[in-house]
From TrEMBL:
<keyword id="KW-0472">Membrane</keyword>
<keyword id="KW-0812">Transmembrane</keyword>
<dbReference type="GO" id="GO:0065002">
    <property type="term" value="P:intracellular protein transmembrane transport"/>
</dbReference>
<keyword id="KW-0653">Protein transport</keyword>
<dbReference type="GO" id="GO:0015450">
    <property type="term" value="F:protein-transporting ATPase activity"/>
</dbReference>
<dbReference type="InterPro" id="IPR004692">
    <property type="entry name" value="SecG"/>
</dbReference>
<keyword id="KW-0813">Transport</keyword>
<feature type="transmembrane region" description="Helical">
    <location>
        <begin position="6"/>
        <end position="24"/>
    </location>
</feature>
<protein>
    <recommendedName>
        <fullName>Protein-export membrane protein SecG</fullName>
    </recommendedName>
</protein>
<feature type="transmembrane region" description="Helical">
    <location>
        <begin position="57"/>
        <end position="75"/>
    </location>
</feature>
<comment type="function">
    <text>Involved in protein export. Participates in an early event of protein translocation.</text>
</comment>
<keyword id="KW-0811">Translocation</keyword>
<feature type="compositionally biased region" description="Low complexity">
    <location>
        <begin position="94"/>
        <end position="112"/>
    </location>
</feature>
<dbReference type="GO" id="GO:0009306">
    <property type="term" value="P:protein secretion"/>
</dbReference>
<dbReference type="GO" id="GO:0005886">
    <property type="term" value="C:plasma membrane"/>
</dbReference>
<keyword id="KW-1003">Cell membrane</keyword>
<keyword id="KW-1133">Transmembrane helix</keyword>
Amino acid sequence: MSTFTIFLTLIIIVAFLLVVVIMVQNPKGGGLSSAFGGGANQIGGVQKTSDFLDKSTWTLATLLLVLILLSNVTIMDGNGVGESKIMGGEPEVETNVPAPVEAPVTTPAEQN
């Protein structure tokens, strides 16, 4: 299993978790914390649920960005060479391909 495959798997997992965390939040400020009693009289430490969801959203988003940037480093071309040809890698070697043969152009007057 290549490094890129590992990064890709982690990116998919983090993206799924990010979607789940965002969907749990309520856009009107209530979210999961209001489902357990709402208001100021919350019990059992649930009052910090919105803070946890907010922090986990930012953490997962940052982790997703870092994983995407790191996976970009591990992408290799078909030859297994990870260097960019633009940034100073070895130049491409041209293969000897014969030029296409052009058909002679004839006018209708020459055909008769």
